[in-house]
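Sequence, please.
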């Protein structure tokens, strides 16, 4: 594998993965293919474009556009695809599911067709722990568990996963899937909970916390996730699924308080708001299968959160223009206005 197509590479995890791969594999060439939706941002890759000019190409395009995908596959002699491209925000999927189905299901199908036609060495799908649905205390999901999706986002992601397995089973496309837990780290669009809370706290704006804040999430540092994807891309078995997470759960209210502690701000900034409909209480992953390939999460929750907070404090140039933009403000008002409890 030498010429990798990284779809959705201008988003949060994708851009971290692109930087990680170019640093780690000096003989790889990466083509980032991204539609640049509200969540895609070339600022995420600004340093990459400068540091790796000869081995990095950016192409703006939609994964659901079969003709354009075909052209890119041919012209860049792509031999592996890693698909990060997706509509990713649960709250937005509750406002309208159409774009989620179009990108996360139909777009995945278009990429799988291209993978089949060009006989790639590997098609890797980035999926999520949310496909397992809400998990009872005392249990952690394994890869063979049935899918119990509860939001239009997770249902769309599950649709993509199932299509991947179908292309492996029916056509022998060498597909692998990773299902990651919640990521935190640099370049996460600030409508997602952790960067939203950090940037609000910096500006002394209330932190809108859903319901009682007792939802349990496994927050992992984005580069740990990227390493897990790398391991599966190179050492995972085609047709197989691998969970990626820390196995350590944190309640959202604990995460919010920790952010305030790190920034020296009062807990009174926490503003409870009406819970998200169908909000999953708990996710938990068993990651033994990936660990058996030699992967280990490197950051504790504390370390991951500390690094993340520091990055947002030091990189206001990145998030201030997003938060002061009309697109963000329109979403924020629609999502949170009048929701206080
Ligand atoms: N963020 C998390 O905590 C998390 C956890 C587990 C899995 N995932 C999965 O990881 C992947 C990346 O998530 P993220 O948080 O980086 O998302 P993100 O929203 O930050 O980025 C998504 C990227 O995909 C691009 N995109 C959207 N629709 C597209 C289309 N039709 N064609 C081409 N590009 C398109 C966007 O422009 C953006 O750059 C997603 O598949 C997501 O489901 C995310």
């Amino acid at each position: 594998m030498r010429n990798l197509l990284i779809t959705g590479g201008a988003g949060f995890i994708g851009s971290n993965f692109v930087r990680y791969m170019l640093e780690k594999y000096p003989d790889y060439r990466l083509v980032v293919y991204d539609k640049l939706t509200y969540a895609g941002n070339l600022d995420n890759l600004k340093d990459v474009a400068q540091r790796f000019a000869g081995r990095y190409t950016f192409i703006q395009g939609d994964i659901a556009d079969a003709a354009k995908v075909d052209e890119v596959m041919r012209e860049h002699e792509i031999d592996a695809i890693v698909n990060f491209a997706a509509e990713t925000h649960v709250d937005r999927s509750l406002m309208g599911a159409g774009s989620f189905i179009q990108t996360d299901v139909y777009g995945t199908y278009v990429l799988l067709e291209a993978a089949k036609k060009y006989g790639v060495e590997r098609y890797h799908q980035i999926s999520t722990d949310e496909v397992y649905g809400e998990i009872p205390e005392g249990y952690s999901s394994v890869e063979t568990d049935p899918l119990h999706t509860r939001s239009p986002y997770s249902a769309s992601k599950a649709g993509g996963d199932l299509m991947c397995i179908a292309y492996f089973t029916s056509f022998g496309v060498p597909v692998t899937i990773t299902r990651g837990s919640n990521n935190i780290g640099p370049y996460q669009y600030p409508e997602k909970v952790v960067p939203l809370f950090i940037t609000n706290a910096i500006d002394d704006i209330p932190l809108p916390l859903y319901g009682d804040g007792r939802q349990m999430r496994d927050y992992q540092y984005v580069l740990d996730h990227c390493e897990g994807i790398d391991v599966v891309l190179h050492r995972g078995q085609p047709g197989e699924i691998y969970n990626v997470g820390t196995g350590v759960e944190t309640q959202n209210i604990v995460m919010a308080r920790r952010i305030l502690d790190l920034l020296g701000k009062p807990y009174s900034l926490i503003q409870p708001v009406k819970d998200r409909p169908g909000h999953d209480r708990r996710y938990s992953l068993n990651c033994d299968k990936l660990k058996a390939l030699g992967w280990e999460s490197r950051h504790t929750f504390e370390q991951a959160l500390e690094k993340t907070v520091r990055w947002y404090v030091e990189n206001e140039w990145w998030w201030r223009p997003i938060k002061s933009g009309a697109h963000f403000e329109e979403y924020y008002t629609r999502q949170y206005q009048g929701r206080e409890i």
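The pocket of nicotinamide-adenine-dinucleotide is lined by residues 7-8, 10-14, 34-37, 39-40, 62-64, 84-88, 103, 107, 126, 128, 157, 180, 182-183, 189 (CB under 6 Å).
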